[in-house]
Prior knowledge:
Elements: H1 4-20, H2 26-30, H3 39-51, E1 55-56, E2 65-66, H4 68-80, H5 90-93, H6 102-117, E3 120-124, E4 133-142, E5 145-152, E6 157-163, H7 170-184, H8 192-197, H9 205-214, H10 216-219, H11 225-228, E7 229-232, H12 240-243, H13 249-258, H14 260-267, E8 276-279, E9 291-300, E10 303-313, H15 318-341
Antiparallel strand pairs: 1-2, 3-7, 3-10, 4-5, 5-6, 8-9, 9-10
Amino acid sequence: MLSERQSRILSLVVERYVDDGRPVGSRALANRPDIVWGPSTVRAELASLEDEGFLTHPHTSAGRVPTDSGYRFYVEKLLQRQDRLPRPTSEDLGLSRMRREVDVAIRDTTTALSQVTDLVALVTAPPLHTATIHRIEVLRLQPRVVMVMVIASNGGVTKRAFTFEQEVDPGLVEWAASYLNERLAGLGLGARMVADRLRDEGLGEQENGFLAEISSAFTDLEESAEDTLYVDGAARLLSEEHLADLPHADDLMRALERRVNVLRALRTAIDQRSVFVWIGGENPAPELREVSVVGANYGLGYRNLGSVGIIGPVRMDYATAIASVRGAAGELSRFFETVYDE
């Protein structure tokens, strides 16, 4: 347990190092007008903080820099003191003008968050299994080609085309659209009950055969990382400002391109109710263990639907990052409350 003085000195070191990227010496701290301790006291406390693993001492400088543990202590203090966090508004994030479409809303959020923080922004879309079937369209595109479109309660749309050996009766297609909306509306996407509802002994052979051909449009829905993880601002980490703090930037870029492990890591935090912060080696994905991730979940009052996050160097402005992801998550929660109520 750190003393109040040690806690104050450690916070100052983190803030100073985040601000200019240079190791912090005892004289620089002791000369601050808000510091009442002399240089010898500050020097002794810095040495003690180094011994306890919160600071490290680069061999090329007399100053100290935070370790992952130092950043962790600082972040925990921030999370305990909400009044010390900046308060980005909806206008800062550009979310007040979000269109109703889910895909556009999430993309706008990701872009705005990246611009506000100057880091990589991530948003996970709600998984398909969290939504129900809102409406079904069955369209005859060509004599032997039928398109089935499923509109989910969260605004998501899935489409699948089916090619038949024989020409499809337009009347059968029209009937199927009406029948499927009556039978399946309100059911969970991919739910076992959907398959049960598609089997109806009261239907004729032609109708049952047609439904069997298109049933995979409702029961075999698949998601990919490309569909559910939105990323913006990867090039920002390659800028001169950040690149020096990312010794293995290529590995990170490859992880962002593949997305699968990043998505899996974010989904491990889906049950958390507040902001989560992974610093360096704390990250569940090996590709992220030289960066920090700051995230927050969004959703409805009774369940989380996805996560908003940023990726940046361990030396980042955590106060702004925490406030920004919390603000973006709050905006998306309000957005999805209207979407799911419709």
